[in-house]
Design goal:
12 strands; 3-stranded antiparallel beta sheet; 2 helices; mainly beta
């Protein structure tokens, strides 16, 4: 499952969200071996992120730029907050002007294909993150969804994906991410 919706939030609400992201300081947090620069999502946005039949397990706004978050980190979303993740979504927030072209790439792994196997062991999942996620010789890019302000990308959490490209040379890539079980 992969769905792209343009002009997702009402324009005034999206403008408020974009302004919020540019006017507030991102906090650097550690999650396992990875650091993220994040902001909390304003509460008025949360109802727009609800998906019938799914429970939102985690959501936040994250940022990447040429000096931070520069690895490929090709991955699939598996267990988040102790729950099996079924769907993930990305709402592109950054302004189009002054930012390098970027988006989300979907990948094919040399052994596992396009999706994380349902029966993957914790050891193999960890190995993929630690050994394969930044080794492009193990991956083939199969699809690219370009960042466009107020575009929502929703996909099966088992699809291998990453930000694209891995380094944002100009400006900042700002996205809201949400995970569902």
């Amino acid at each position: 499952m992969l769905e792209v919706l343009n002009n997702y939030l009402p324009d005034p609400l999206f403008q408020e969200l974009q302004d919020y992201c540019y006017q507030n300081d991102f906090e650097r947090v550690q999650a396992g071996e990875k650091e993220f620069e994040i902001l909390e999502i304003p509460p008025e946005i949360l109802p727009y992120l609800e998906i019938d039949g799914y429970e939102m397990n985690l959501s936040f706004i994250r940022r990447a730029h040429k000096d931070f978050d520069t690895d490929w980190r090709i991955h699939a979303d598996n267990i988040i907050n102790g729950k099996k993740t079924l769907l993930a979504s990305v709402l592109y927030i950054n302004k189009a002007e002054g930012v390098s072209e970027n988006g989300t790439a979907m990948w094919i792994h040399e052994k596992h294909g396009t999706h994380l196997p349902e029966d993957i062991s914790n050891e193999e999942f960890d190995r993929l993150l630690l050994e394969d996620s930044n080794d492009l010789s193990k991956w083939e890019k199969r699809e690219y969804i370009r960042n466009k302000p107020n575009r929502l990308l929703t996909y099966s959490a088992t699809i291998f994906h990453s930000k694209y490209p891995h380094i944002i040379e100009l400006g900042e890539r700002i996205v809201l991410v949400a995970f569902y079980c």
